[in-house]
């Protein structure tokens, strides 16, 4: 871990010492995601309700600049500039470096189609089956740890050799029991659990940015 990423990591627990119980799991989650990106893989997120919003939020921080400037790949910039047109020059100037990420909670067409035709519980797993590859990472958020659509997605992920990171409350539920890195925050009320999830995934996104850009 780079010194700049380590500083973000340490600062998280200095600001919120009650999260120290999650320290090792946050570190493990970081290494799993970093490994995915270093081998050219993708991160998938899923959750329901407020956790669906968090799933979308994580993807938003990964797909564009979060805290620091990100260059796009040099070869892409060269090709855009070599086009010699206004659009290419605009894109070369305005685009930001991106980390591949998809929120399975945001795909309304496939979510509603599968829920209507088959069952809501399998809607995340169905997407993962079509999109995920060995070495990718799934981040599943469930305050109870027992949201069945998240649990089923995690179960499939293991069969696909996809890493699973869970964000839950202190109980952890079925999701934490099967995750490669189980982040169980010290709270039991839904809103409190979600309040703790946000600074953790913000720290992870900032750490990844420091490592990869």
The count of strands amounts to 5
Could you tell me the strand content as a percent range?
5-15%
- Total of DSSP H or I helical runs spanning 4+ residues: 10
- Report Rg: 18 Å
Query: How would you write the strand order of the largest sheet?
Result: 2-1-3-4-5
User: Helices and strands: which structural class?
Assistant: alpha/beta
Helical proportion, percent range: 55-70%
Query: Main beta sheet: strand number and arrangement?
Result: 5 strands, parallel
Distance between the termini: 13 Å
- H/E series: HHEHHHEHHEHEHEH
Name the features.
213 residues, alpha/beta, 5-stranded parallel β-sheet, 5 strands
Describe the model.
- This protein has 213 residues and is α/β, with parallel strands linked by helices.
- The chain has ten helices and five strands.
- Strands 2-1-3-4-5 form a five-stranded parallel beta sheet, with helices on both faces.
- Helix 9 links the parallel strand 4 and strand 5.
- Helix 2 crosses helix 10, helix 4 runs antiparallel to helix 5 and helix 6 crosses helix 7.
- The longest helix is centred in the last third of the chain and has 23 residues.
- The two termini are 13 Å apart.
